[in-house]
Amino acid sequence: MTVHEHGRYSTGVEDLPYRSVPEAAVGRLAVYLRVLTSMIEQGVTTMSSEVLAGAAGVNSATLRKDLSYVGSYGTRGVGYDTARLVEHIERLLGLTRHHSIAVVGIGNLGHALANYPGFPDRGFPVTALFDLDEDLIGVPVGGLPVDHVDSIPAICAEREVTIGVICTPVPAAQGVCELLVAGGVRCILNFAPIVLQVPDDVEVRRVDLAVELQILSFHQVRRCNGNGVGPVVEPIDPIAVSR
Amino acid sequence: MTVHEHGRYSTGVEDLPYRSVPEAAVGRLAVYLRVLTSMIEQGVTTMSSEVLAGAAGVNSATLRKDLSYVGSYGTRGVGYDTARLVEHIERLLGLTRHHSIAVVGIGNLGHALANYPGFPDRGFPVTALFDLDEDLIGVPVGGLPVDHVDSIPAICAEREVTIGVICTPVPAAQGVCELLVAGGVRCILNFAPIVLQVPDDVEVRRVDLAVELQILSFHQVRRCNGNGVGPVVEPIDPIAVSR
DNA sequence: GCGACTTTGTTCCTGCGTTCACAAGCGGCT
DNA sequence: AGCCGCTTGTGAACGCAGGAACAAAGTCGC
Lengths: 243, 243
Ligand SMILES: NC(=O)c1ccc[n+]([C@@H]2O[C@H](COP(=O)([O-])OP(=O)(O)OC[C@H]3O[C@@H](n4cnc5c(N)ncnc54)[C@H](O)[C@@H]3O)[C@@H](O)[C@H]2O)c1
Ligand SMILES: NC(=O)c1ccc[n+]([C@@H]2O[C@H](COP(=O)([O-])OP(=O)(O)OC[C@H]3O[C@@H](n4cnc5c(N)ncnc54)[C@H](O)[C@@H]3O)[C@@H](O)[C@H]2O)c1
Hints:
Oligomer: homodimer
Low-confidence stretches of chain A: 1-18, 226-243
Distance between the termini of chain A: 65 Å
CATH architecture of the largest domain in chain A: 3-Layer(aba) Sandwich
Structural class of chain A: alpha/beta
Radius of gyration of chain A: 22 Å
Mean pLDDT of chain A: 85
Shape of chain A: globular
CATH class of the largest domain in chain A: Alpha Beta
Bound molecules: nicotinamide-adenine-dinucleotide
Number of domains of chain A: 3
Strand order of the largest sheet of chain A: 6-7-5-4-8-9-10
Strand content of chain A: 15-25%
CATH superfamily of the largest domain in chain A: NAD(P)-binding Rossmann-like Domain
């Protein structure tokens, strides 16, 4: 499934001056996009970097540098045209085309994802569901019938699935991953708490909620212990006392 | 406050020599922890940094540096004692104590989280559920009855909830967040796609699946377009995928 | 007991990402 | 029309994280 003819999108991606967009910036751009669309719905047509940065929870300089990666489309003295900015960020992120999603493992989490309207609404239609459980095969979930895992390669290739979402138990995850790769899927979102081994040209993002909780735990404990020195004590630095 | 020789360690948290552990390292340590516990279940008692790094998907030098933050407990020429390593990582991450979780918004996602045994299994017992929907109040989910959102502050304080998980629709998220903070919760895991505004002493981690998908989309499109320099660069040998 | 091999812990360095700061540019006001 | 103030875009500095390389240290084999 090599994408040869991109020329069809004349307003397309190929003439963007994008080089070396930092990984972190890509994630933030997606956040800006969400804030912007929300603002547009409220009728906002122009935003300054200061305001947008505040809403996105980042430094305004960082925001402006991030936006410079998509090209300079702001107006000095005024700010950014929200609609135009959305358009350009979407183009950089490759959202001008739709990306079909396949969800594998229609258990608790898989059900929630399959029913979630936020994905199709944002250009990520769920076009395939898979499970091993015979009782689930053929049952429609969110309007789409569940197929058997064995048909992953064929169906993914046929429906041009670009993103595979793994919601199976840990022992099944690696195998499912390989089936997806065999079906031509090169982007994987993995909810199973395991590090998947994949070829170099496959991109995996892992969503590990237990890790998130443990990071929160770390900060919680650290906060109570000050800088790790001495027993549990109130913060030593009297920052509250201003000079 | 002195960091005495850490050849001797008592079981307490207070004399850990942890200072300035990089944020990224904390996340990786949680991953090592998972790999290690999995290995221990398989009877592995010793691991080298090379092997552990491979399983965790990181560079071995990075791994050793990360482990140096928890103290030097490896044996040169042999590797790390898995059980002891787990013990020390858990201590650094503050997992020696349990952290009660409250889930707010018992919809699709909230149900999945409330039923997920992986949280209590890892020291994060779910001790409170909240929703606005009258039909849900009192209904047990995962063995725990749902309470009304209005009782968030009281119940969170009473049950000493340390982590609040927000699974409500976007418009409700900020309000729910404030209720949690009022109940003394200072760590929040937010699934609603919105940037929460919180006091400085509250730590928020956002899990935004749409952002994850968009990052994957970016890489997908970029891969097809080469490195952005010049027009579309085609991979000479596409993988042996049927076209 | 001793040597050689293995692996850790650490140091140095390179590269990236973030922030500061400021000149350039644009709109609005008088 | 010209000036003023506001905001962008970017160059430069700073801080930090990640990777390579190496010396110390401990074990295993003989
Ligand atoms: N539920 C949560 O809140 C939650 C939170 C964090 C992580 N996770 C992780 O997400 C994954 C799924 O969680 P869940 O709660 O939905 O589990 P679940 O048990 O409810 O669902 C798992 C589903 O996968 C299917 N399955 C099993 N083997 C399969 C295979 N080989 N191929 C395809 N499908 C297979 C099962 O039939 C079942 O429908 C797990 O790895 C879990 O650790 C879940
Ligand atoms: N379901 C998914 O797969 C998914 C994926 C990504 C993000 N999210 C986000 O997670 C959140 C929840 O998603 P969901 O699919 O579970 O939605 P849902 O509609 O199934 O559930 C939302 C729940 O929140 C409750 N609620 C509404 N207002 C409330 C309030 N003020 N206080 C407390 N509870 C309230 C509702 O009664 C309902 O039970 C949403 O913000 C959604 O965008 C969900």
